[in-house]
Amino acid sequence: MANIPHYPLQGAHDLDLLTQEIGDTRIVLLGEASHGTSEYYTWRTAISKRLIQEKGFNFISVEGDWPDCFEVNNFIKSHKTDNATALEVLQTYNRWPTWMWGNWEVAALADWLKQHNNGKPEKEKVGFYGLDVYSLWDSLQEILAYLEKKDGAAVAAARKAFRCFEPYSEDPQEYARAVAFVSQDCEDEVIEMLHTLRTKALGAGITRESDFDAEQNALVAVNAERYYRAMVRGGGNSWNVRDRHMMETLTRLLDLHGPDSKAIIWEHNTHVGDARYTDMARAGMVNVGQLAREQYGEENVYIVGFGSYKGSVIAADEWGEQMEEMEVPPAPPGTWEYMLHEIGANDKLIFSKDLRHLKELEKTIGHRAIGVVYHPRRERFGNYVPTIIPRRYDAFVYIDTTRALHPLAIHQDHTQPPELYPWAE
Is the CB of residue 389 less than 8 Å from the CB of residue 365? Predict the structure, then answer.
């Protein structure tokens, strides 16, 4: 058993060393080992608060759809005038898996961000954005609404693209299956729409950010079309289309906020942990963590992985099926999570710089990854990613026993938030 240096993680004050290690890093990526664990959200919130308050980070960008997250962005910046609450705004997350962002943990974050932004000049307000590529139809509808302010070629191009997808009943996967067997697709239409928007229509928005929103929705439509077309062909290409889109969006957001801007990214470990130090590399797959390090330099990127030994999680048996709370069994011997449990059944913070002299950790070790579809009894056969831990991350947050997330769809009858921060001071 390797003697793994570690630090206690019991309260927000225990993040002092982490914020010190992050230093002046421009991009901080905060992972998660599942999309349904409460502690991953609450600790990412605690870290994000410190980065925003103490180091001036400008926005949080997440593994969520652009249109839905932009609704949250408008809420926390007080652009919405309907006096909606955070819980009401989060109802916008109505595409499966709804629990990823429609939950009490994110509601608490949104309320805090709104309060933090209150009274600040527009350029000093912290933003909240989605990096993902799934929102093909929603983005097309947002573009049409934006372009209704203008006549001519721009709105005509958007309508043409919209009509191209209409036969597929707002189901991108149906579109993907259809174009797999024919040469005709909607690629030209969405590219023309993006080009026309950029050359003729931008400037119709009230603010620079509203123009950015319109252009981003057009970019989502272009890359979503590519993603769904690649998806039916199998292999790693659809994954790469998706993560390259997320990286392109992150770059655009940093450019939007200026040369000194700083970004916090919330995504699954499989997206933030450098793919070069996992078996993804052999399959030719890249991810946001790798691309960020390559584009901005490792000294400007700090990656924090997350994981746990056992607990409970929100997930589903199959894609699109009902969510449920599931048991996460103890990690099996030989895995990263088992090793951390064996050195003490307590929550802890680990830094990769302390591990790189340990030969036992400079090889691939199984590291748990739970998706939105999960089968606890079969997890050891498909839920452990071979990982060189000290290279994949810069730091690691370990929670020995975790609790399931609190989705609004399950816990919507609460008059008060469930207890989300049992470790808070």
Answer: yes
How far apart, in whole angstroms, are the C-alpha atoms of residue 257 and residue 263?
10
- Find out whether the peptide bond into 417 is cis, omega within 30 degrees of 0: no
Tell me if residue 270 falls in helix, strand or coil: helix
Q: Of the ranges 229-238, 350-359, 384-393, which one carries the lowest mean pLDDT score?
A: 229-238
pLDDT, tens digit, for every residue of 219-257? Answer: 888 888 888 877 766 667 889 999 999 999 999 999 999
Phi, psi of 241 (to 5 degrees): -60, -45
Question: 3-state SS of 213-233?
Answer: HHHHHHHHHHHHHHHHHHHCC
Tokens 């001071």 locate to 425
Burial of 391 (0-12, 13-18, 19+ CB in 10 A): middle
| 255 CB neighbour count, 10 Å cutoff | 11
- Residue 143 tokens read as 């573009």
DSSP 299-331: GGEEEEEEEEEEEEEEEBSSTTSPPEEEEEPPP
Contact status, residue 272 vs residue 305, Cβ threshold 8 Å: yes
Asked if 224 and 133 touch (Cβ cutoff 8 Å), the reply is yes
Q: Cβ of 20: how many Cβ atoms within 10 Å? A: 8
**Global pTM value:** 0.91
Domain coordinates of the chain in residue numbers? 7-130+262-411, 136-236
Q: What are 264's strand-pairing partners?
A: 28, 60
**Domain at 7-130+262-411: CATH code:** 3.40.1660.10
What is the rounded CA–CA span in Å between residue 399 and residue 261?
31
